[in-house]
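Q: Give me the 3D complex with zinc ion.
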Amino acid sequence: MATSDSQHEDQRFLVLRSFRDLPPALLFRGLLDSAAVECSLADENTIRMDWFWSNLLGGVKLCVRKADADSAASLLDQGVPEKFEVEGVGEYQQPRCPKCQSLEISFQGLNKPVDYTRALLGGHLPHSRSLWECDSCGYQWPESNEKPPANLLISASSVLLIVMTIGTMLIWTIAAVRSVASH
Ligand SMILES: [Zn+2]
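A: Here is the predicted complex, encoded as structure tokens.
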């Protein structure tokens, strides 16, 4: 039946907005919560673990049901606060467009995925790791080099290397166990 199909479709979750940082995502989730709009944050746990992954995954995503998407979007459009308190995080200040000072900017993620491969291999960190774009004037600029601190990024890549090493060791162990079991 067409009616139940479209009802089912309306219940599906879709990505309403992507954020680079967790604080604004939490703020907007709180906004929707207070308006009784059901929503969830995708990748929230991963983002909490490390800023590094935020870039890798394209940020934290605020998801709402399709049926609520329009009302949720208009709620979010009512204004981007310049700075606000986030529980457990402290004051968060929204970045602005350096050209027109607009707060309506979006994070475009990485310029080149290969930059991260270089970082992982211990190479020099590229100067422009990622890109912002202004929704008002279209100006693009690279992420400031102060955030995150280089040592955070390096420690994050060390963690990733360890995880990768453990993964490889696991595969070897499983292969070894299997070959023993088959004999
Ligand atoms: Zn601008």
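A quick observation: Residues 1-94 form one domain.
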